[in-house]
Each structure stands twice: as C-alpha cells, then as structure tokens.
Amino acid sequence: MNPGINYGKSYVDIQGNGLRVTTGDIGIGTTDTKGYKLAVNGKVRAHEIKVETANWPDYVFAKDYRLPTLQETEKHIKEKGHLQGIPSAEEAKTNGIDLGEMNAKLLQKIEELTLHLIEKDKEIVVERSRVDRLEQLLNKLFNK
Predict the structure, then answer these.
(1) Which of 7, 45, 84, 88 has the fewest Cβ atoms nearer than 10 Å?
(2) Organism's domain of life (predicted)?
(3) CA distance 67 to 11
C-alpha cells in the first residue's frame, strides 16, 4: 500500500501533491463519463474556472454582420419561445449547455442589443431635435 494513499470504506484519500491521471477518464459520483475526461454527478464548487473558446463574437461588430431586426427577434420569440441561437429550456434540460459556447452566445446577444440601443439612441436624438424645431415653430405661430 502506498503511504500517501489511505483506502477507506468507500473512498480514496490522496494526500500530498494531489492526484495526477495521465490516461483515462475520471468520474466523481459516476462511472459513466460519457467520453469526457472529467464527469461529476453532483455539485461542483471552485474558486475559478477558465473556459477556453475560439469563436468569440466580436464578429457582431464587423461591417458585414447582419444584425437581426427587433421585429425578426420578436417574431422568433413569439414562434419559438426563446431567443434565436439560444437553446430552449427543454434543450438545455435534455442536453445540458456548454459554458464556453453559452457565454459566447450570450455575449453575442448583448452585443446585438448594444447595437440596437446605439441605433435607438441616435433615433431619439433626431426625434428630440425635430420636436424642438416643431415647438419653436409653434411658439412663433402662437406669439404672432
């Protein structure tokens, strides 16, 4: 028996420099890792998790990106009950979600909303200027 490993009734307590597995998969609370290197059947708590992803959605700000209109977004929500490109609640429940992929999709939606807000803000500035001009004209007419 290795002095750094204590075999208990149903657990292995590894002391020292921790656990290193160079081949195979690890299941905690499960023996079916479903092809993942680490599978946990239960809650996970960590101080930090880093997820690496390659397709970060800065493409939303590219000149050739086709921003869905708010009308198209509304239509999709009415028809499907969720945002386009985002899994439905049923899909998430059935298949789970990939954190890196979901963060990228959520950022894409935030960036799209930001572009819509910028556009709406410009429209408000134009409309405010128009209202100001109309008020000035009305004041001139009433003051004559």
Answers:
(1) 45
(2) Bacteria
(3) 53
pTM: 0.74
Can you give the residue range of the structural domain that contains 3? 1-45
Cα–Cα distance, 40 to 8 (Å, whole number): 20
- Please give the structure tokens belonging to residue 117: 């807000």
**Claim to verify: residue 38 and residue 69 sit in the same structural domain:** no
Partners of residue 106 on adjacent β-strands = none
Per-residue pLDDT tens for 31-76? Answer: 899 999 999 999 999 999 998 888 899 999 999 999 999 999 999 9
User: Going by DSSP bridges, is the β-strand pair 5-7/26-28 parallel, antiparallel, or unpaired?
Assistant: unpaired
Residue type, 80: K
Per the CB < 8 A criterion, the answer to whether 65 and 109 are in contact is no
One domain for residues 59 and 130: yes
78-98 pLDDT, tens digit per residue, is 999 999 999 999 999 999 999
